Amino acid sequence: MQHLAEPEADPEKVRLEQVAALTDPATIRYLEQIGVREGWTCAEVGAGAGSIARWLSNRVGHFGKVHAIDIEPKYMEGVTAPNLEVRQQDITTTPLEAGTYDLVHCKILLMHLADRERVLGEFAKALKPGGYLLVEEADIRSIQRVDPPSPLLTRAATALETFFYFGGADPGYGMKLLPAFRRTGLKFLGTDCQLTAVQAGSPEMQTVALSLAKLAPMITKIGLMGRKEVEAAFDQLQQPSDTVLYTPITVAVWGQRAED
Ligand SMILES: C[S@@+](CC[C@H](N)C(=O)[O-])C[C@H]1O[C@@H](n2cnc3c(N)ncnc32)[C@H](O)[C@@H]1O
């Protein structure tokens, strides 16, 4: 069992891969619905461990191109293909090139950025005429729902949410995405959301546990929870039991730039 004092090697890569494993099936459904096809030029922004960039690179083929963009691209080591270019880029200071992409996709990115509405507008401008934008953002408030009720886990969920606010992120941005997307002026095509119920002690619960482990030092430092309390919450997530909680809700919205 993983313990706060003994983190696994590279837990951030494991965490990114587990977030992707939970959320990629829905992302791929949306990409299929949009109709991504051979020859497209795509930007995967905030690409994380690169699983969707890899999927896109397989889909667009030899004549297509994928730009996998991340401020910290080291977790994409090993994600390589002739049509895939990994770019280290801070999307808040270096925008995507205007009028360039058939598809721009991001997942769980904008909620972390202070200037998220401007960046969303730049994604819309980066589309070619007829190009598609797919944005997926989380609402982490769903993790407060625990059954059977656990004041400790609810307190940990509240601490995570408060920490996000303090750090300039918007933990409920998923719910704001739809009106923000409409303000871009793109043609709205669809929206959906997904979440998973995860049980204490299951491999899926590791994703929630790793997120808590990542933020635990900051949460205790600013006094949102004591270290012992965080460790008790961590144990409750990892010990097999009937305790179930929801993952963050991921809200997806997609749309299209008008043809010229
Ligand atoms: C929560 S992870 C999500 C990763 C991936 N989209 C997924 O859903 O599996 C957010 C990613 O965005 C990247 N990121 C954060 N701020 C960024 C910025 N300003 N420019 C580019 N990438 C950024 C992080 O390094 C991280 O890989």
UniProtKB/TrEMBL annotation:
Among CDD domains, the record links this protein to: AdoMet_MTases
Pfam families cross-referenced by the UniProt entry: Methyltransf_11
Gene3D superfamilies xref list: Vaccinia Virus protein VP39
Transmembrane found in the keyword field: no
Q: Does the keyword Lipid biosynthesis apply?
A: no
Domain (Methyltransferase type) ranges: 44-135
A single GO molecular-function term is: methyltransferase activity
Q: Which InterPro entries match?
A: Methyltransf_11, SAM-dependent_MTases_sf
What's an example Gene Ontology biological process for this entry? methylation
Listed A to Z, the keywords are:
Methyltransferase, Transferase
- UniProt name for this protein: Methyltransferase domain-containing protein
